[in-house]
Design brief:
Blueprint: H1 29-39, H2 48-51, H3 69-78, H4 83-90, E1 111-114, E2 117-120
Antiparallel strand pairs: 1-2
Length: 131
């Protein structure tokens, strides 16, 4: 088991949940990830830098995966901790206050509550600027 899956506190420079510089994913993928996290279909989202060893996309061992700080921040901003986040916080293994300095770096998702269901609208992410 991963001894500290919630150790990442700051989103990666190209985290898919960053407002600026996010890695480009297939259309609708970010919204799908958010929907799965909010609806409870997914219990977490692993940071891409802890899943893949290198550019060849060979995967690391699952026990080395860490929870994506950007996804955790997004959920905290929405007030929608997953059940696993809640359990890990109670066990003292997840500290949401450690993420607060990076809230402005992560996208804001308009949340609509319709008959008890959460729906995620499209998300606008600005590409990285070329200096």
């Amino acid at each position: 088991m991963n001894p500290d899956p919630y150790s990442l506190k700051k989103p990666c420079a190209n985290c898919p949940f960053n407002k600026v510089g996010a890695i480009e994913l297939m259309p609708g993928r970010v919204e799908g990830i958010i929907k799965d996290l909010v609806n409870g279909t997914a219990t977490g989202f692993s940071c891409h830098k802890t899943v893949y060893k290198n550019r060849s996309c060979s995967k690391r061992e699952k026990e080395n995966h860490k929870q994506c700080a950007g996804s955790l921040i997004l959920l905290e901003k929405m007030g929608r901790q997953t059940q696993l986040m809640q359990v890990m916080e109670r066990l003292g293994l997840y500290h949401p206050d450690d993420l607060k300095p990076y809230h402005d770096q992560v996208i804001d998702v308009p949340e609509l509550v319709l008959e008890g269901h959460y729906r995620v609208k499209s998300v606008t992410i600005k590409p990285a600027t070329q200096d």
